[in-house]
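re the bet — no i am not wrong, look at it urself. input seq straight from the record:
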Amino acid sequence: MRLIGNIIWLVLGGFFMGLAWWLAALLCAITIVGIPWAVAAFRIGTFSFWPFGQRVVDKPEGAVAAGLSTIGNLIWAIFFGWWLALGHLVSAVLCAITIIGIPFALQHIKLAALSFFPYGKQIVPIVD
């Protein structure tokens, strides 16, 4: 069932949003300073291509790392997060028009929220 969901997801906006995440990662990687954001964006872009069967969780961190994640997320949201979130929200609205697209719209909304706070997250497989 996950395979079918992921294939339909690619058609309903997942492919284009995955490319958008990878574009953001590429733009971050151009500068040396942006490499940590590029790594996070590439990881979430890969998740955006094939989200069903995986989930996003917070990384276990110490107090210093949590503070750095907050600063990293703020910088990310200013430069890239808002337009990725906008792309996911537009995709969610287009998916929600049909009944079969509602689960995919919900996934786009989750990814829109993740667009603002990607730093300090990790992707883990869902174990049945």
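see?? Residues 63-96 form the longest helix (34 residues). told u. also The first strand starts at residue 54 and ends at 58. so pay up
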